[in-house]
Amino acid sequence: MAEPPASCKTVLAGSVAKSLLAEVLEGLSKLEAPPLLVGFLANADPAARMYANWTDRTCRENGLPFQLREVDREQIEDSIVTANRDDLVDGIIVYYPIFNNRQDQYLQQIVDVTKDVEGLSHRYIFNMYQNIRFLDDSQVQKSVLPCTPLAIIKILEYLRVYNTILPYGNRLFGHSITVVNRSEVVGRPLAALLANDGACVYSVDVSGVQQFTRGEGIKKKRHEVVEKADWSVADCAPLSDVVISGVPGDEYKFPVHLLREGAVCINFSSEKNFGPEVKEKASIYVPAVGKVTIVVLIRNLLRSQILLSMLDQVDGKLSKLEMYDLQREIE
After folding, report:
1. Is 236 an active-site residue?
2. Number of Cβ atoms within 10 Å of the Cβ of 41
């Protein structure tokens, strides 16, 4: 008698990245020349180094020029300003944390918005939290979103958690999602993006739980945040059909016994937040997101080139209509 199929499907980031990369490279092939991406590494963080190495390898494998510039953190500001002014540089990524304080936020704001492939400039962050999806009134120029949060969204789309029958912007309606991490770079933006797409999101960190939602019947234009007094992960995890965890360090392990049967579980920490027992409760488990994040980075680079071409249509290779079509191809 045949063994019953495993109850949990493990989905690797490489499978998701492969499908996205084909679409992105098709768009890049329509540009006059491959854009140059420059990365700045000004710390000794192993996760940042690994991210930089992945970026380098992915770019090389796909014929995209990439330069990793390792600088002292006291020189990082001048280095970014120099790259902003360099016409040969098309996209800039800075590997954080550097100072691990508000100075990192300042550095995010000095990257030229047309070269910001991380989606961390003020204009992009403002649009993201306000649920403004375009840079222009004609809704041609898409706003750039932060790489890792967008990578997780692309994974959820790949897993068909997003309901494509529903209108764009409402496709997570009916889903409850727990996000364990509320950092300004990943956790909070991710909670906002998921809530803006219609989900009820429980954002968990050491200070407690916040609920991100567009209100009853998702009638509000953008998400609102409510403190859940006295709540912990033990209260929200059993309510969630998706659990996403990204706690740094190797000491944290998500309490798998709290999972709802058949939940989708995604780990975006450089360490494994879920133990092997997660496969006994989850229906789908994604152990890492890094490879998807790199493809999203390249996708954002393409968006920056589209924006530049729109701002300089006289000398650009593509017409406004062609740029519009190209924009739609990488949705």
Report:
1. no
2. 21
pLDDT in tens, 264-284: 999 999 899 999 999 999 999
Which tokens hold the place of 154?
């692309």
Summarised one tens digit per residue, pLDDT across range 112-135 is 998 999 999 999 999 999 999 988
Query: Strand pairing of 176-180 and 242-245?
Result: parallel
pTM above 0.85, yes or no: yes
DSSP label at residue 6: P
Judge contact between 77 and 83, C-beta under 8 A.
no
Q: Which residues contact 38 (CB under 8 A, 6 or more apart)?
A: 66, 67, 69, 83, 89, 91, 92, 93
Angle at which helices 320-329 and 13-28 pack, to 10 degrees?
Answer: 170
Long-range pairs of 307-312 with CB within 8 A, sequence gap ≥ 24:
307/114, 307/135, 307/141, 308/90, 308/114, 309/31, 310/140, 310/141, 311/114
Considering the candidates 147, 200, 236, 265, report the single residue annotated as catalytic: 147
**Three-state DSSP state, 253:** coil
C-alpha 157/C-alpha 139 separation (Å) is: 22
- pLDDT tens across 226-268, in order? 999 999 999 999 999 999 999 998 899 999 999 999 999 999 9
Take residue 248 and report the two structure tokens written for it: 């740094």
94 close to 38: Cβ distance less than 8 angstroms? no
